[in-house]
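Researcher: I need the complex structure. Ligand is copper (II) ion. Inputs:
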Amino acid sequence: MTYLPTLGMGALLLIIPTLTPAFADEASATRPDSHAPIGVMGDHRHKAGEWMVSLRHMDMSMKGNLKGRHSIDDAQILNLPNQHGSPAQLRVVPQTMDMKMTMLGAMYAPNDEITFLAMAMQHETSMRLNTYGAMSRTLLGSFTSRSEGLGDTTLGALLAGGDVTQKYLNGTWHYGLALSIPTGSIQQTGRVLTPMNQQISGKRLPYPMQLGSGTYDFKPSLTFNSAAHGEWRYGGQVSGVVRLDDNSQGYRLGDKTNLQGWVSRRLAAFASASIRLDASYQDRLRGADSAITLPVPTAQTDFTGGELANLSVGFNFVGQHGIWAGHRLALEWTSAIHQKANGVQMEFQDTLTLGYQKAW
Ligand SMILES: [Cu+2]
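Model: Output:
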């Protein structure tokens, strides 16, 4: 997906000259950097009585495979044991994966101490795979799996924490408490090409192709936002995902922790640029779905979880007056800079996030 950064920069070049006249009023108090980069969730709270709606679109791409930190090719993957027994070794290898997510969010603050939030998600995922012969190990062909539909739904609240007023650490922090409700399907099926060279339809797709976790997940977070230091601002967040039960198919995805920090600089009254670094760790999946049995790395329960770190570059824009006042547009381009997979997993490439937000 190397076209994405180019596309992002192209869109930016189009947006800046078009919006400059309408966005150029310095007098407004709405700063573009008063929100974190668009890839950060639950980064800001609202004042009493305020509402906000947001729409985000993320497009994430994966390509090739890693064993631990190192690339592994198809021929090497065919030597690995298959936990499902037959055939004895892996015979289906993912090549590329594209995950599109559209998130619709709402925020409401009944008072200055608490901001409620809700977020619904729509997924559109596709994966292209190669199938090799059970005995011959020769390439039989490729096929593409697709899954599409509603994902999990998050409901929660952001609670005022406090102020920090040190010389070099000056800002506010807040807690986030959220619950993810398993509205996404975990029984998506598709047509696959088997190592016996048969096309089978209605086969349960591997774990990364499912639309939700299937479990109620607790999602706590702690966020710090600095005060403005002239044109500069920074922030950080630690967050987690804790699975509260096993799902109906007999497994739970690994718990997750994420640590991130960002720095932004205001470029104009209506625009800011940001750099963000994030690192996350996810545990292995526990249990297994007995209907997920393809001889493919993504159906091996030990080949889940690991470390991932990303570097992101983003831009926030906010209208300063007229019909543009208070309308926010943001984009962020995220690139994986470190990945250590448990077992063999697909390699993360990059993600483009586009967002729109409006508060009133
Ligand atoms: Cu908001």
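Model: Summary of the prediction. Confidence is low (pLDDT under 50) at residues 9-28.
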